[in-house]
Design brief:
By secondary structure, the chain is an alpha+beta fold. The protein contains 6 helices and 9 strands. The strands form 2 sheets. It has a 7-stranded mixed β-sheet. Strands 6-7 form a two-stranded antiparallel ribbon. A hairpin with a 5-residue loop joins strand 8 and strand 9. It is found in: Cytoplasm.
Length: about 210
């Protein structure tokens, strides 16, 4: 079930902010009415593909910030594990230098509510609770608008890293649509021609391309 077009599930959970401070009640709600948010899940701290993505978001953080967009990461690890990883140098597989928030979804409810938990709970015939699958998050990425509505989502399997530049392109497209009322065709990028969402607009665009 996609969340696109629906309100993003709200939460309050522990997080590490500014790369060094643990807070107990980080909330997505604080950005509603103020900022678009790129909210992404990754499987686990101290792994392999994950630090490349987390550091890639950090490298592009200024691009998101100048567009007024907040970047937030999350996994099912604890806030203490997040902090330990943030205090580990890149040479040792760490993510030192990352400044945007990393949420600790220890209860796995946030990942479950966003539809990216890589498994589910079940009961045995004896009535014992079990978990089928992996109790960690897929690589889910959500673009949430200022009203708290999910406008884009992608979910990658564990081995498949994200394209951070594509998220910037989608932010640009969303902001262009909201500002100009036009729609963005295939492969649209900032500075390229958009089009009116009418038969005439499509015909004009296609005739020029």
């Amino acid at each position: 079930m996609t969340l696109v077009g629906k309100k993003a599930p709200l939460f309050s959970a522990p997080a590490v902010i500014n790369g060094e401070e643990i807070v107990s009640d980080f909330s997505l709600e604080q950005f509603i009415g103020k900022n678009e948010v790129v909210f992404f899940f990754y499987p686990k701290d101290f792994t392999f593909v994950c630090p490349t993505e987390i550091l890639a978001f950090q490298e592009k953080l200024a691009e998101f910030e100048k567009r007024g967009v907040k970047v937030i990461g999350a996994s099912t690890d604890t806030e203490e594990t997040h902090l330990a990883w943030l205090c580990t140098s890149k040479d040792n597989g760490g993510i030192e230098g990352v400044t945007y928030p990393l949420v600790a979804d220890v209860a796995k409810t946030i990942a479950a509510n966003f539809g990216v938990l890589a498994g589910d709970w079940d009961y045995t015939e004896e009535g014992q609770l079990t978990f089928a699958g992996a109790p960690i998050a897929f690589r889910g990425t959500f673009l949430i608008d200022k009203e708290g509505v999910v406008r884009h989502e992608t979910v990658n399997d564990f081995p498949l890293g994200r394209n951070i530049d594509e998220m910037i392109r989608l932010v640009d497209a969303l902001q262009y649509v909201e500002k100009h009322g036009e729609v963005c065709p295939a492969n649209w990028e900032e500075g390229k021609e958009a089009m009116q969402a009418t038969k005439e607009g499509v015909a004009e665009y296609l005739s020029n391309h």
